[in-house]
Write a structure and sequence with these properties.
Layout: H1 12-28, H2 31-56, E1 62-68, E2 83-87, H3 91-99, E3 105-111, E4 122-126, H4 133-156, H5 160-168, H6 186-221, H7 223-228, H8 233-269, H9 271-285, H10 292-303, H11 310-316, H12 320-346, H13 352-366, H14 368-371, H15 373-378, H16 383-390, H17 395-402, H18 409-443
Parallel strand pairs: 1-2, 1-3
Antiparallel strand pairs: 3-4
């Protein structure tokens, strides 16, 4: 009696699944995976926390010596919680105190003697490397306010009551988008655009490098020869790409969860400050709609409001619910597009250094949006930004860069569709290159 020892062949889909599971388990077990899982979100939380802590940190007290040769500003500069103006008799005395390292003097304000009725120049002297923009702004504002009152009261002859009315009159200029009516917060948007684009590039490079490392190890250890005895090159490459994609999704999920938890803790710790910033942003985004006495009451309420630090208001305006899903989606599409090409190019050489030379052009193309960051951010709806967002090689980074400025839904959808169409073609091309480079190596 003969025993039937026939073993049915494993279907192609199952073979790809086995390679994918092997790749996933091998990557997740590595120390680098867990190191990245912890370090990256901690860095993101630290970057989020720094402006919060800086905004709440008490400013150092500064003493400014005033040398007024005109006599117009004597005892008229108001002190604040952080700036104290003291009057000195001569510039030589004030300069001597400023140069003393043991003295608490932060600056010397020298108001030059007027050659005409109205003084026109003043100098603010600092120690090297101690320029304080807040102090500079306070001195400039107070000098011009006092000068305006001097002109109106003494030169023009305006009454004190009329002058008080003029002094309290202010008009606030708010920059708003004509379509949404929202404040664009340009400094925040540009900073966030650079951060998101850099994160996209680093993520794509990190996970594409995982594939190249696996290819080098298999070629040098002849594991590829064993695998190719039962798996086709296309199955092997597809399994590597999908396995590393699952690793990337796992890692990105951990990054998102840990970062979200860290940001939530920071916001809870400074809850009052963030609530104040949110209320202030809502007030600024919804201008006064009433008229007459009600409008006057609202204006007085706004004038008496202590505003939250500008950095906290910026952080409150970041819409994570929109940014995170789009970033994850375009990262996945960008990774699938680049991974096969980088793996196939890396397989051309068994040496890691020589293989890196083949992948360098792709990485330079990936970084093109950062290279042309200036023109793109200067006109986010211009031709350059639009073209870069539709080219598969630059689309992931460009879309990430445009997210803070509100990329149109149609443009994002078209970019996604182009990536979905070109990714399978790119994978087939990569498989062809991979088949012709990995087989000779395995048979050598």
């Amino acid at each position: 009696m003969k025993w039937n020892t026939y073993t049915p062949p494993i279907p192609m889909s199952n073979k790809t699944l086995l390679v994918m599971c092997r790749e996933y388990v091998a990557q997740v077990r590595g120390k680098a995976f867990w190191l990245l899982a912890v370090v990256v979100p901690l860095l993101l939380v630290v970057c989020y926390t720094i402006p919060v802590v800086t905004a709440t940190h008490p400013q150092p007290h500064a003493t400014v010596l005033v040398v007024d040769e005109t006599g117009l500003f004597l005892n008229r500069l108001h002190n604040s919680d952080h700036i104290n103006y003291q009057y000195a008799g001569s510039l030589a005395y004030a300069r001597e105190r400023l140069l003393l390292k043991t003295d608490s003097t932060a600056a010397v304000l020298h108001i030059l003697r007027r050659e005409t009725t109205i003084p026109t120049d003043a100098h603010l002297y600092y120690r090297p490397g101690t320029d304080d923009p807040a102090l500079r702004s306070d001195a400039y504002t107070q000098l011009n306010r006092i000068l305006a009152s001097e002109i109106l009261l003494d030169v023009v002859g305006v009454s004190q009551q009329d002058y008080n009315t003029i002094a309290k009159s202010r008009i606030s200029l708010h920059i708003r988008d004509i379509n949404t009516g929202q404040d664009p917060d340009l400094p925040l948007r540009k900073t966030l655009a650079i951060v998101l684009a850099t994160l996209m590039i680093l993520s794509l490079v990190i996970f594409s490098t995982l594939i190249t490392t696996s290819v080098y190890e298999e070629k040098n250890s002849r594991i590829a020869e064993v695998l190719l005895s039962s798996v086709k090159p296309f199955q092997l490459l597809l399994g590597k790409i999908t396995g590393t994609a699952l690793v990337a999704l796992t890692l990105l999920t951990l990054w998102t969860a840990i970062t979200a938890g860290g940001i939530a803790l920071v916001q809870h710790r400074y809850n009052d400050l963030f609530e104040q910033a949110h209320t202030e942003n809502h007030t600024l985004d919804n201008p006064l709609q009433t008229k007459g006495s009600q409008s006057t009451v609202q204006m007085h309420e706004l004038e008496n409001t202590t505003f939250a630090p500008l950095s906290i208001r910026y952080l409150d305006r970041i819409h994570f619910a929109t940014i995170v899903p789009v970033m994850l989606l375009f990262f996945l599409l960008g990774y699938l597009f680049y991974a096969g090409l980088i793996a196939s190019l890396a397989s051309l050489r068994a040496n890691r250094t020589l293989g890196s030379l083949h992948t360098l052009p792709l990485l330079l193309i990936l970084a093109l949006p950062l290279i042309f960051m200036g023109p793109i951010l200067a006109n986010t709806t211009g031709t350059l930004a639009t073209v870069f967002s539709l080219i598969p090689f630059t689309a992931p980074v460009t879309v990430a860069m445009l997210l803070p400025f509100g990329i149109p839904t149609g443009q994002a959808s078209l970019s996604m569709a182009i990536l979905l169409f070109t990714t399978p073609l790119c994978t087939l091309l990569s498989a062809t290159i991979y088949r012709h480079t990995i087989i000779p190596s395995s048979k050598a």
